[in-house]
Amino acid sequence: TGTLGCQDDPQGWVDSDGDDCVKYETNQWCTPDGQPGPNFDGGVEDFATYANHGHTALTACCACGGGSAAGGDGAPPVATTTSTAREPLGECRGDRPEGWTDALGDDCDAYVAGNWCTPQGVPG
């Protein structure tokens, strides 16, 4: 969907109800920073109710803060620190503030385990 430098990933993803990323964007069910939109009935944790193939709209849809960098490296394009500054993913180095997590609560260990990045700070 319409986020510059981002592509929905996996392509063609739909939630457990059959709703795609375009529908999440047009219905304002989420925001680009990975939060529930004004028309979503629930909190961030409720997106898991609609998970499909290991993804929710928050991980699959650019309009919801997910997707991957254009070029399809499989990593989400950006994450937020607890200070709300936006940083590129794939950079889980020792210079992160203690307790750093992205908007979904994943820390650097989760990024390494998910092959989203390596301990050296490059995409996994």
Radius of gyration: 14 Å
In DSSP terms (H or I, runs of 4 or more residues), the helix count works out at 3
One letter per element, helices H and strands E, the order comes to EHHEEEH
Widest sheet, order of strands: 1-2
The portion of residues assigned to helices is 10-25%
Largest beta-sheet details: 2 strands, antiparallel
Structural class, judged by helices and strands? little secondary structure
Low-confidence stretches: 72-91
The number of distinct β-strands equals 4
Distance between the termini: 24 Å
Average pLDDT reading: 74
The best one-word shape is globular
Beta content comes to 5-15%
Question: What labels describe this entry?
Answer:
little secondary structure; two-stranded antiparallel sheet; 4 strands; 13% helix; 124 residues
